[in-house]
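Appendix B, record 7
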Amino acid sequence: MYPAAMAEAQMRVKVSGNFSVAPAIPTAKHSMFLSAIDISNIPSNNVGILLFYKTPVAVTAEKDFHAIVGKIKTSLSLVLVDFYPFAGRLDMKGGESGRPQIDCNDEGVEFVEATIDMPFEDAEIDNFQHKNFFTELVQTRHGKDNDALLSIQVTGFQGGGFCIGVNFHHVIADGNSFSHFMSSWAECSRGIFPISKRPHHMRKVFQRDNGDRAIPNVYLRAEEVVTDLIKEAQIFRFVRHNSLPMKYSEMNGSTADGSVENTNNIIIQKSVEEKTNLEISTFHFSEKVIQALKERSGASTSFVAVSAHFWRCVMKARQVPENKPVYFRVPIDFRARVKPPLPSTYFGNCVCSGIAQTTGKKLLEEDIVFAAALIQEVIYSCASDAHINNFVDFVESHLGSGNIDPTLGNLCSDYIVMTSMSPKFLVYEIDHGCGRPVSVQAPSLKGIGRMMLFPGREGGKSIAVSTQLPRHEMETLKQILMVIPD
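Structure tokens (predicted):
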């Protein structure tokens, strides 16, 4: 956001109340164990979405907005009875164990009531394409001690309509758990309490004995894919080394600059983002377009078809050099993949990343079938229970060496597409009693070329994709993304 635009937005948004909302029924105070997967997400302390609601014409008076806010706030206190970790605080020191944990103390969720001096129609312009003031519709945490782990801001527009801005700490939940929370919260707003699907708090299923027990020596390795459709491409897999296992006290996979080297001598480093002149745009893939992409790419799912096309178009818009490596990274929910399977209502982080690599030349010169087959192979390769256990051991071993930001958190490149959220999350079903949202947007995006997916607001099997690129690259993407490959 440019300084002038930011100043304008700050003047237009007026906070009328800032509250702390605790569970309606006090919960037992205790320390909650965090899995290695949870802890690896500590650096991701701001994950946000905006939900825009166009209230009926009759609901325009200030008192009506206050009534809506009051109901939403009350229902939040109800849903926190089951989702109580959101009302706790992150304890980085972890008491005697020294391991980060959640202090479940009912300290509360941040709840902000605000107004903006513009009509709802200003947000609707150009189908809710990202606007500078969107960042002012949600609270942002700054990583301070005792920060709330969940922040809610309800902002009323002139003449009716409002936005619910939600921002949460990734250490608490992945996208699936967050979606579960949001739908349960809406149930409470509609008078459904107890909620229909209670969360399962069972993070200790991933607990490893980190005393003197020797743990497997697990590496992240890029392995060549050799199939009829995929050549000159690699998939990163977690593999156990044949040498003697290492103990926690001996683990140190980090290099001096914080990067991590795998067995193929591929360095995975932190990227330096281009901070200026960036643009966020949302693209809508209709059910008809998606079907055409599936037929053209041979993809088995809508996600794979859209992702393959998006990956190629973004790299073309970015004018990736032929010899440069390009990556695709997708978080894969493994609740149903571990043995025994976990319930879909498992609350916490339960995803591992699938990562594919090829060259810019290979990705763009090959048919879209190549990209689709490679993404499908990545998802398939992360489906095994052995791979998932290796992933957990890999992350745990880095925590043992004092590094809470292991390789997967740092895997960046100038040319990477990373996905987040999912078209499976039913965000357009989040009805607080005054109708469904008319649009769901990201207040901001981290990184260049990130791919945030939601279901399309037109329903059916449509998909909306938001991304961020330098402006000149975004102009190119707008020209090519909605064109089906010949």
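Remarks on this record: Residues 221 and 265 are 9 Å apart (CA to CA). The first strand starts at residue 13 and ends at 21.
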